[in-house]
Amino acid sequence: MLQGLSAQGLRVLKYLWVAPVTVLFLPLAWLASCTGGAYALHSGVLEIWGGKLGQGLNRGLPLLGAVAAITLGHIVIGISPDYLNRTRVHEREHVRQFERWGFFFPLIYLAAGLWVLSQGKCFYLDNPFERAARRAEGRLE
C-alpha cells in the first residue's frame, strides 16, 4: 500500500502519524524558553533543553529515575545541549519507534516496561525499546 509513496510522502505520513503526541508536548518549548532554557530544530526533530524542564529531568521521572533526555513524538527534551548531543543516536531510535507505533507508542512502551517488571527485571533497562535504543548507539548487550 505504501510502496508507491515517495520518500517525502512517507516522511509526511510519519509526521502526521506522530502529530498527536508532538502537538500535545509542543508548549514545552515555550515553557523551557520562559524558564531559562531554549529550543531548536535538529534533523527534523524539535530539541528542547534547560530551564525547568532540564531541572525536572535531572531530578528524575516516575519509573525512569534521572534521565539525560526523553523523546515525545518528534520532540526530544534534554538537560542541556551537551546531553542532547550525547544522547542523539539513542533518542533518534525512540523517534523511529514513535514513527512506527504512532500515538500508541507511549502505551506500548509502558506495557513493555510493566511486562519486564513483572518478570523481576528493570522497567527501564530491560524494556525492549530501551534495549533497541542502546543497540542503535552501538552498546550491544
UniProtKB/TrEMBL annotation:
Q: Which UniProt keywords apply?
A: Membrane, Transmembrane, Transmembrane helix
User: What is the name attached to this protein's record?
Assistant: Uncharacterized protein
Q: Where are the transmembrane segments?
A: 12-41, 61-80, 101-118
Q: Does the keyword Transmembrane helix apply?
A: yes
**What organism is recorded for this protein?**
Thiothrix eikelboomii
